[in-house]
Each structure stands twice: as C-alpha cells, then as structure tokens.
What we know:
By secondary structure, the protein is an alpha/beta fold. Among the domains are: 112-163, Oligo-1,6-glucosidase, domain 2 (Alpha-Beta Complex); 469-541, Immunoglobulin-like (Sandwich), CATH 2.60.40.1180. The protein is built from 15 helices and 20 strands. It has helices at 33-38, 40-46, 81-93, 112-117, 178-193, 222-232, 250-256, 291-305, 323-326, 334-346, 376-387, 392-402, 439-443, 449-462, 465-468; strands spanning 14-17, 50-53, 57-58, 70-74, 97-102, 131-132, 152-155, 160-163, 198-201, 240-245, 266-269, 312-313, 351-355, 470-474, 481-488, 491-498, 504-505, 516-520, 530-531, 536-541. Strands 11-10-9-5-2-1-13-12 form an eight-stranded parallel β-sheet, with helices on one face. The chain has a five-stranded antiparallel β-sheet with strand order 14-15-16-20-18. Strands 6-8-7 form a three-stranded antiparallel β-sheet, with no helix packed on it. Helix 7 (250-256) packs across helix 8 (291-305). The longest helix is centred in the middle third of the chain and has 16 residues, at 178-193. It is globular. Residues 24-26, 28, 30, 32 line the site of calcium ion.
Amino acid sequence: MLNSKKNWWMNSVIYQIYPRSFQDSNGDGIGDLRGIISRLDYLKKLGIDAIWLSPVYSSPQDDNGYDISDYRGIDPVFGTLKDMEELISSAKALGIRIIMDLVLNHTSDEHQWFIEARKSLFNPWHDYYVWRDGKEGSPPNSMKAAFGGSAWEWVPEIGQYYFHQFSLKQPDLNWNNPQLRRELYDMILWWMDKGVGGFRLDVIDQIAKEPDQMITMNGSKLHSFIREMSEETFQKGDLVTVGEAWGANVENAKLYSNPDGSELSMVFQFEHCTLDQKVDGKKWDLAPLDFMALKRIFSKWQIALHETGWNSLFWNNHDLPRIVSRWGNDGVYRIHSAKMLATLLHGLQGTPYIYQGEELGMTNVKFSSISSYRDIETVNMFKERKEKGFSEDDIMKSIHAKSRDNGRTPMQWDKGQYAGFTTGTPWIPVNPNYEKINAALQTRDPDSIFNYYKKLISLRKEYDIFVEGAYSLLMPEDPQVFAYERKCLGKKLTVICNFFENEAYIENSADISDMALLLCNYGEAEPLKKLRPYEARMYYTDRDSHAL
Ligand code: TEU
Ligand code: CA
C-alpha cells in the first residue's frame, strides 16, 4: 500500500446475506427486509462493516432474484422500497453499509425492456438484448446455458433467437448498445442517491460476450465497459465495488482492481473453488481436494496483487457448499476445523467475506429426495443427468456435496421451531442439526465459532499488518500444514494451520521465537512441535529482527 491511498474497505469485513434464507418477519416462510432489520444487532455484535445483500429487486424468482424485472423496485416477498430505505438508514446508524447486488449481464424475461424487445425487430428496445437469426430448430451455434440446454431460445413471432447464458428466463443484455448502458448507469446513480455503500457485480466478466465467436467471459470490450461504468457512476461516491468473475486470472485482476480506482475495488474470483472436481469435469464430477494446489493458488494471488490490486477472501457464498463440510470436518472436529479455516483466510491480504451461518459453522444438508431441493441449477442437472443414464445415487452424491442449496437452508437462530427463522413453513427445509448449531447457543459461549470470528474481525481492526503485510508461504512442501507470514516495516504476522485431522509434526520451519500468540483454536498453545487435528495459530511481533 506504499503508493496508494488506504480505502475504508481494506480493513473491513463484509457479511453476505441471502435474504430469502436469513430471517422471515411475517410468517410466509420467506426471509425479508424487516427480518434483516430485526437482526442488525446480531451483525453489529459480530463486528462486520458492511452487508452484501443478494438481490431483493422485483423478480419472478426463477433464479431467486438473479432474474430482475425492475431494478428500481423491491419484490413484495422481501418488502417495500420504504423497508429498503429503512434498512439502509438503520444499518448506517450502526456503522454498517449496505452493498447491493447488481445483475447487469441479464434481466428477467418479464422486465419491461424484454417484453418490448420481443415484440418486433423494429421495436426501440429490441437491441437491448442479443438476437440472432436462425431457422427454427437450428440455433446459431452450439453454445450451452449454465443451467442446462442451449443458450439460444427461439421466438417464433419474430423469427429470431435470443441469447441467455443462464436460464431461459434470464435473457442476456446487449452491452454494445449505448442507450442500454446509459439506462443502467442512471439506475446505479439512483441507488447511490439512496445511500448504499457499494455494489457487488454479478458475473461482470460475462457482460462483453461475443456469441458469434463463442466467447462468454473476458470479451474484448470488457474492461472498457467497466471503465466507462466506473467513471459514470462508482467514482462519484466513496463505494466498495466487487466484481464477481469466474473468468478472472491474476493478470486481468490487476485491471479490475487497479489501485488507481479506474475500474472496481476488487475482484471475487474462484480459482480455489474448482480444486475438488475432476480435471475437465464440472463441479458435479467430484474429486478430493488438491491441497498442494490450494497452497499454490492462494500464494499466487497474494503475491501477484500485493500493491497492484486487491483480493476478496472467501470460502463461501450462496452458490457454494458450506466450507466446514467441504474442506473441514463437520463431524467431531466441526468446531476446530471451522475455526482453522477462518484463521487461514482472515490472516491473508484482502477483504474477508463471511457468508451467513459460516460464523456458526453451519454445515451442508443431505435431503434424501430431489423434491426438497429448490435451486434451478440443481433441479435441472438432476433431470439432465438422469436422462443421460447416471444413477440416482451418484447424482444425489454430487448434490449433497455441491448443490447451491447447501448454502441456502434457513439461518439457524435458535432451537425453537424452524430454528427461529419463520413461524410459517420455510420455503426450503431447515437443516435438521439446528438444535445443536445455532446463534443463540453460540453468542453466549465464549469458545464458540461465532466468538472466534468476532475476535478475528477485531484483530484486523487492531493491527494494520493485516492490510499491509507482504505475504510469503512457509513450509511450501508440507503436505498437511498451510503456513505463511506477512511482513511490513519491522512487524510480522505468522499463521500456521494443520489442514487435516491427523496430527502434524513440525521441524523448525516457522520461526516464532519472540512472537506473541494472538490466537489459537485450542485456546492454549503447546510447544510448536506438533499440531493437533485442525489446529490453527496466529503469532505476531512488532520487533521483527529480520525485517528490513
Ligand atoms: O453466479 C455466477 C455463475 O456463473 C453461477 O452460475 C455459478 O457458476 C454457479 O452458481 C456455480 O454453481 C451468479 C450468481 O451468484 C448466481 O447465484 C446466479 O445464479 C448467476 O450469477 C446468474 O445470475
Ligand atoms: Ca417473509
């Protein structure tokens, strides 16, 4: 950070809320804005700085709100615009900013623009979307949609196909149209006027698609579109902006998160999230985690973006399985492994994200029947693979490991009915482990995962090394331990984690002499010869004799 200014979001921690599953206030079984308002105290207690709110705009809910029919309206299942304004101001009073989720790659097919666009080739809104001629039955090319089937959908009335990278009900916007871009920017400015603290940009790497070239991500105009948008909107405020990009690499991440502020604050990239699937397979094609690759990839991003960009740090979001089940241990070592994973992540350089329930060590869920699943991606995959002849057992195994619904079961507040989420029937079943894993138990237990996260968040505020320190990997060849240090101006932070349930033996590889123990997930630390199952430690000194 030597040359660039420090921004508020650099020592912030962002908490993601999936509104549908957070807190219901009116008994219809669906979480809503008034529910969130009623839980702000809980978030204040945890110590987070900002809330990333998954979409609450008007939507037919084909993809739980990622299909927007009116960017300026709030969907009645979530509340009203007044509730939204109240959420922004009540959060602000607690020092918490609200980050809206902007879906700019596509709208709902029920958006007024699309209703017009599909009426005729000469309609003024036609060009807001991506159309190609074709003959009925033979789409322009073989591109596939993320949620199954062709990416092209025939509209017989006008004899053209429209392009959709996600569901049929999520037609892609045509960013080449300047008028469309202007309308999007005006909408962003409108939300900025409402006092939001920033934006998360859904699949931002896909807005500059070039379907004739079969290009979805990283199209040639991508960064010029982002720079234009940033200049016209974000740069007029003191916002945090986060680009979701499955197609990011360390090179383009330096553009996205250029410290000169010309694009976004940071990029949310997923390279580590593909390390437990078969090479050339899909996420459903399960493979054990490649731990050495995890060390390599985290290290690569830490080093590449140091002083040239900014990282998002996360294990979880609403599209990913629960980390404690995925790469920790949701049996006997649930608490230790959840804390270890948190320690590893929160010691890195970047802005940490906590996904609702992660701070409680919430786990994956194993519904026995596909009828309990709600996610369009999961449901479509089930059908598709059944038709292809996969066994139901195999498919359910993939779903239990990777379904997006793992992260979407209701937030577990207490041991009451439906975990305190709703007085009605929840839209998706509650994870049956809520009597053991819930917020009420953990907020009053000083050794809980919740209170451990709280401690990690407060450490980030207390020591500037979390923001500034330069990263290096320790013990690179160790197949079981993930250890690294951060250094800056005579200060040093060392993080040592046993990633597995076997004890790990350490031979003088991390020099922690004269360092103070900041945190250990077993409470007391023993001499650093042996690490217990999933043991994590964090050490600090501000008198590092080896530092420059
Ligand atoms: O996700 C981006 C995306 O590419 C997902 O389809 C992702 O590949 C998948 O969820 C992995 O299982 C964003 C949103 O986060 C997601 O919820 C939306 O469904 C999607 O965009 C479409 O808006
Ligand atoms: Ca509700």
